[in-house]
Amino acid sequence: MTRRLDLAIDSNLDDVCLIGLVINEICEFARIPPVDAYQIELCVVEAVNNSIRHAYGCRPGNIVRVAVEVGEGELRFAVQDTGKPMPARLAASLADRSRALEFDESDVKSLPEGGMGLAIAARVMDQMNYSTSDGCNSLVLTKRIPHT
Amino acid sequence: MRLEETKHGNVVVFKVLQPRLAADVAGPFKEQIVQSIRDGNRSIVLDLQEVNFVDSSGLGAIVSCLKAIAGDGDLVICGTRNTVASLFKLTRMDKVFRMFDNTEQAIAALS
Hints:
The structure holds 2 protein chains of 2 kinds. By secondary structure, chain A is of the alpha+beta class. Chain A has helices at residues 16-29, 34-55, 88-91, 117-124, and strands spanning 3-10, 63-71, 74-81, 127-133, 136-144. In chain A, helix 1 (16-29) runs antiparallel to helix 2 and helix 2 (34-55) runs antiparallel to helix 4 (117-124). Chain B has one domain (3-110): Transcription Regulator spoIIAA, CATH 3.30.750.24. Helix content of chain B is 40%, strand content 25%. Chain B contains 4 helices and 7 strands; from the N terminus they run βββαββαβαβα. Chain B has helices at 26-38, 56-69, 82-90, 103-110, and strands spanning 3-8, 11-16, 20-21, 43-47, 53-54, 74-78, 99-100. In chain B, strands 1-2-4-6-7 form a 5-stranded mixed β-sheet, with helices on both faces. In chain B, helix 3 (82-90) links the parallel strand 6 and strand 7 (99-100). In chain B, helix 1 packs parallel to helix 2. Chain B is globular and about 30 Å long. In chain B, 44% of the residues are buried. Classes of the chains: A alpha+beta, B alpha/beta.
């Protein structure tokens, strides 16, 4: 049986923690170990941050939704906004985003200060799909979990 | 942004007093520590024992602080929980920052 929960916040970075806290509780409900739960929460938070920053340009008064599905053997999070879509080239290369973390750790000047959110999600999540339909952008993050 | 600043000889310890170091507070956090570096502090410990969540913006702010001091001092981290430490491993920042279990060890390393 798949269980569903829909979350929504205003496009305000101050409110993203509310989404994160609920996602972490859902992971605990699904008996996911704390480190994995943290990383899943992190990926959803990063996706919501991206919607607020890039889709809405940090303008409050817009809605970011997170549709959660707790299914047999997987968790799915659809992070949705109605703002500016992700550039097509970026959307087509989500699986390759982890390359953003290939830096020379001995060269402090080369260390990334931003652009790590999707790279982290690419490393943690089993699947990432981005689509736009009828003005709604949706980034779906899927994580396989052991059957409980 | 709630940061506690204490001085131990030439070492300044910044203890983050809130549970989340994320996009909403990353800017003020960075400004406060970079200002301390501009004021001449060259040995900085970042104490994360009260922090249970860091996102990539929080991590980016920590990296910015390291860049501000690099070559003319050091910034080390202590007290990370397993969850937060996993972010440093995921992003390979565990290879960049010196990390200690507690403030005493971190201060000793910089003294």
